[in-house]
Amino acid sequence: xxxxxxxxxxxxxxxxxxxxxxxxxxxxxxxxxxxxxxxxxxxxxxxxxxxxxxxxxxxxxxxxxxxxxxxxxxxxxxxxxxxxxxxxxxxxxxxxxxxxxxxxxxxxxxxxxxxxxxxxxxxxxxxxxxxxxxxxxxxxxxxxxxxxxxxxxxxxxxxxxxxxxxxxxxx
Length: 171
Hints:
The protein has helices spanning 4-7, 11-40, 42-68, 75-83, 87-91, 111-118, 127-141; strands at residues 93-99, 102-109, 145-152, 163-169. A four-stranded antiparallel beta sheet has the order 1-2-4-3. A hairpin with a 2-residue loop joins strand 1 and strand 2. It is 57% helix and 18% strand. The chain has a single domain, classed as Muramoyl-pentapeptide Carboxypeptidase, domain 2. The chain has 171 residues and is α+β, with helices and mostly antiparallel strands.
């Protein structure tokens, strides 16, 4: 690391900094999206969002996989570990449920939708973006995963969470 200021921070300050960095990352994601949305409309913004997430999520998963020293096919255990290290995990409340070869990931409280609601904006139709984001993330952790949406705006089927995703490990 080349930032001596950060190197000298104690654990509590590092955790606070991590939280701030995660919020800054999400803010940047939101402001570019809203810029495209304002100028070209929601459909165009979602299309660009899908393209961005297709690339970003793979890079994020590769870095997490390397950091955790996960094997090539990390399975359910590896995906569970990796999801806990995503930037979203720092700022959203979530839960993971595992049963046999299925992992369900639920976002219980989503900063993106909360911010849009607070600003009087329509919700982000994140299902098409999430399908790309979560599928590519999971397949980078282990190529045997299939991913499907259980509930995600605009197709909300579970009002106890903002979204939920099902990952099935094919043997």
